[in-house]
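User: Structure tokens for both sequences below?

Assistant:
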Amino acid sequence: MLCAVGPVLAQPARIAVVNSELILPDSLPAKQAHNRLAQEFSTRDRELQDMDRKTRALADKLEKEAAVLTDLDHQRRQHEVAELTHEFQRKQRGFREDLQQRRNEELNRPGFCGGSHS
């Protein structure tokens, strides 16, 4: 028996390295998961983009009109921009957290590479 083990041990080891981060995004389950997430979150993403554009437009308008505004109007608009910015950041944070949670759920779905197969 020991004679049979000798030639096997004498063979050089061959090790293959697979970068799953490069392969998984191109897999069918990954593409399907991406499509599900894109469909699920597209409306919220558009709403956030619209909110960001409106907030930036309001801030730009405030900056351009600052010289002609009364102090009270300037403070009121600054407060409005600050509130919108805070609201945008809150919604964006919630969006990212929800997206990350759903992404993790998709990655752990049965049938997905590396997911649980219960």
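Moving on to the next sequence.
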Amino acid sequence: GMHYRQLSRGSFHGCGIVNDGSARCWGYSGTGATTVPGGSWLAIGEGDQFSCGLRPNGNLVCWGGAMAATPVPAGGFKALSVGEEHACAIRDSGELACWGSNAHGQATPPAGRFVHVSASYTQTCAVRDDGSRTCWGGTP
């Protein structure tokens, strides 16, 4: 049967990556957030009414809502986290790139190299390669 290797949830919908690398999304689909492009995925995250995914080749793709029209950063990425109205990803170099709403400064990441990133409602937090943690944006 179908086995999920990653499950995640947004405000109104959820997504999962199944064992063959393809993805399924469910829930509110009025903005197209559950209409997943075909192909394989390393990671998927859900925001308010959109989803973003990370391809095995390091490319980022977003779909649904206004974020679908927001250009995603180009280049090779290895990790992705999606907040309410923004998203951040870690480049192969370890540097961060964020896009989407920056109303609280949540999409303006600090310089440096990072190993983990977590985007939330109006804030983003990340762990540097030396193990220290930093957050930016509004209150969590």
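User: Anything stand out in the second?

Assistant: DSSP finds no helices and twelve strands in the chain.
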